[in-house]
Specification:
By secondary structure, this protein is of the alpha/beta class. It is 50% helix and 10% strand. α4 crosses α5, α12 packs across α15 and α13 packs across α15. 37% of the residues are buried. GO terms for molecular function: acyltransferase activity.
C-alpha cells in the first residue's frame, strides 16, 4: 500500500519496512515481556522464533497480533458475539465510527470479528499520547495503527486535523482500506455515547464537495460495542467527577497504561459487537440544512441512533437502570440475575477502590444504566 510523503508521520508501517522493524524489536527486552505476558509458557527462543517468521504486515497480524488478542479475549470474555456482517461487503472499504469503551479492545475486537470472518483487517486510530515508547510505536504500527496527534497548539491542531482528514479519505477512497475511529476523543466514561461534531467536521476539511457527497465517499458505518462488565468502570469515576464540577482533570502517571492493562486482563462477562448499516440515503437530508453545524448535528444523530439501537443491553444495564429509577423488578431481561446481589457487588467494588460517596455509587450505576436510556430514546421515537 503506497502513501504520499505527507502522511509519513502518521501512517502504519508497510511491508517493505517489516524486516527492519522486526530486527529492531528482537533486540528490545520489551518484546519478550509483551509476548510472555500473552504466552507465559514461552521462553526467549519461542519469542524469537515467532517473530522471525514475520515478513509482512499480514504475517504479523496472522502469526502474532491475532493469536495474542484471541488468547486474551478467551481468558477474559465468557462469550464474544457479533451481528451485522451482512451490512458490509468484503470488497468495499468503510469508515467504521464506533462508541468507545476500552482503549485497546474496542477496535481489537472488531478486528477479530472481521479477520475470522474473512473480511480482512482495519486500520485503527491511536492517540499519540498512548505511544509511550519505541516498542509500543513499533508494535502498533505493525498492526495497522495510524497516529492521531494529541495535545498540540491551536495552529498545529488545525494542521494535524487537515492531515488526518486527508489520510482517512485517501486510505478509504484510494487505498481501499477500511478504518476504525472512535466517535469522540477519549472513551465515553458515563455510557452516554454521543458523536462529537468536531470529529465529523474534521472529516470534511479535506473534501471540497457537498457535505453529503464527502461522507458518502467515506461509507460511514456505525459500530456499537457493549461489555457486560467494564473492568475499568471504577477507574473512570474520578474523571467523571472532575468534569461534573467543571474542573480540569489531570491524569496520574501511568493512568492510561493501568487502564489498558485492566481492560485487557479484567473479566468482561459477555461482549457483543454490532456493525450497523452504511449511512447513505439519509445523507440527502443534509441538503435541507443551510447551516454546517446543523448538518453535522444531523449526521451525528444518524450515527448515534444506530449505535443506541444496536447496542446489546445486558442484565447489568437493566438492573442498574431499575435501581436508579427505583423500579427493580424480576424482569426477563435480568436473565435470572439477582438485582440485590448486583447492587451489593457494585458497593463492594466501590469500597475496594476507596470510593464511598453516594455520587460515586450513582455514577457507577449510571455507566451501565445510560445505554438503556439511550436505547429508549430511539425505541420511543
Amino acid at each position: 500500500m503506497g502513501y504520499n510523503k505527507e502522511f509519513e508521520d502518521i501512517r502504519p508501517y508497510n511491508d517493505s519496512e517489516v524486516k527492519q522493524v522486526i530486527a529492531r524489536l528482537v533486540k528490545d527486552p520489551g518484546l519478550y515481556e509483551v509476548l510472555k505476558f500473552v504466552h507465559p509458557q514461552w521462553g526467549d527462543d519461542d519469542v524469537r522464533n515467532a517473530v522471525s517468521e514475520v515478513e509482512t504486515i499480514a504475517d504479523f497480524q496472522k502469526k502474532v497480533a491475532h493469536p495474542g488478542m484471541r488468547i486474551l479475549i478467551d481468558r477474559t470474555v465468557d462469550n464474544l458475539s457479533f451481528s451485522g456482517l451482512e451490512n458490509i461487503k468484503k470488497d468495499e472499504s468503510y469508515l467504521f465510527i464506533s462508541n468507545h469503551r476500552d482503549i485497546i479492545l474496542d477496535s481489537a475486537i472488531l478486528n477479530i470479528v472481521l479477520f475470522e470472518s474473512d473480511h480482512g483487517t482495519i486500520q485503527t486510530a491511536i492517540g499519540s499520547n498512548l505511544l509511550s515508547s519505541a516498542i509500543v510505536t513499533d508494535l502498533t504500527k505493525l498492526n495497522k495503527n495510524f497516529v492521531v496527534k494529541r495535545n498540540t497548539g491551536a495552529r498545529e491542531f488545525y494542521e494535524n486535523s487537515m492531515l488526518l482528514s486527508a489520510y482517512i479519505r485517501h486510505t478509504i477512497d484510494e487505498a481501499k482500506h477500511s478504518i476504525w475511529i472512535a466517535q469522540r476523543e477519549g472513551r465515553t466514561k458515563d455510557g452516554l455515547d454521543k458523536t462529537q461534531p468536531g470529529l465529523l467536521k474534521m472529516l470534511t476539511i479535506s473534501c471540497e464537495k457537498a457535505m453529503r457527497e464527502c461522507f458518502r465517499e467515506l461509507r460511514v458505518t456505525p459500530v456499537a460495542i457493549s461489555y457486560e462488565h467494564d473492568p475499568c468502570d471504577v477507574l473512570k469515576i474520578p474523571e467523571l467527577k472532575a468534569i461534573s464540577r467543571d474542573e480540569k482533570y489531570e491524569k496520574q502517571p501511568l493512568e492510561d497504561f493501568n487502564s489498558i492493562i485492566t481492560g485487557l486482563t479484567g473479566q468482561k462477562g459477555r461482549v457483543h459487537i454490532s456493525i450497523g448499516k452504511t449511512i447513505d440515503k439519509e445523507l440527502d437530508i443534509l441538503a435541507e440544512f443551510p447551516n454546517i453545524n446543523d448538518k453535522l448535528r444531523m449526521l451525528g444523530e444518524f450515527i448515534d441512533s444506530q449505535i443506541y439501537q444496536n447496542y446489546k443491553l445486558w442484565p447489568t444495564n437493566y438492573m442498574a437502570f431499575d435501581i436508579l429509577e427505583g423500579t427493580v423488578l424480576d424482569k426477563p431481561e435480568y436473565e435470572g440475575a439477582d438485582p440485590e446481589a448486583f447492587n451489593n457487588e457494585v458497593k463492594e467494588r466501590l469500597s475496594a477502590a476507596g470510593l464511598h460517596s453516594d455520587e460515586d455509587y450513582e455514577r457507577l450505576l449510571g455507566m451501565y444504566a445510560n445505554p438503556v436510556r439511550n436505547h429508549l430514546t430511539v425505541s420511543e421515537s
